[in-house]
Amino acid sequence: MRLAALMLPLLLIGAAPVQSIDWTAQRAEWNLSVAPFRVVGNVYYVGTAGISAFLIAGDKGHVLIDGALPESVPQIVANIRTLGFKPEDVRIILINHAHFDHAGGLAALKRLTGARLLASAGDKPDLERGNTEGRDSLPGFMPVKVDGVIGEGSHVRLGAIDLVTHLTPGHTRGATSWSMRTAEKGKPLAVLFASSITVAGEDVTGKPPYSSAASDFRRTFASLRRMRADVFLNFHPAAFGLDAKRAKQRGGDPMAFVDPGELARRVDEAEKGFDAELARQRAAAK
Questions:
Q1: Is the pTM of this model over 0.90?
Q2: Sign of CA dihedral 280, 281, 285, 286
């Protein structure tokens, strides 16, 4: 599976009109199946070939991060079972940002698992309305009730699981990342589940309804640079090089996903892309 190729259209969204994307074809590519696997410690990949979903397994139940597309739900549920876990033991669901390709499956997953959905105040209105405000070119999704609001520094705890919330707006007003500690082969590891930090077709020139998008991106880049991560994960596989790392892991390297320098490189790439897109939009507006 060439996962990098599946991500390419999304990476190009900032350089081309979102309206020109064939969403039917894109969704089909994103929703191709991939075998679930353990990333490190108690962190498991249960998503599709083009959209990430992560299961954090615990002694008192599990946390699921992201719902992908509505058509992804059967895969996510099957992947959880394939790994030997019960979907009914998922107690908490989190969402990294309120776009259709991450929020689309939330309503069904809540219903199937009985879990509580926690989200940021910035994304809560979009989730409960079923679309991303100001982004009419993006498909909508099934509205879903948010059971609890989490903010900067909030701890999402479930038994031994302790996820720290980091608000990383820009991609959406409520875009959210999480950090946690785990271990692999006795080595303590800091894991970061980083929300998307690409422009992805939104206006960043200060127009409503999200007039603070540019300044939010700047604050997010600065915030991420202050963090430390041994393992950098993202909600599209190609955005953290899943295919190459998984190949190394299959080849016998249990630390294939460990790269303490990756976070800084990803932020540098994202900020460079943001600067270029902001300049392009400003020039086009003249």
A1: yes
A2: negative
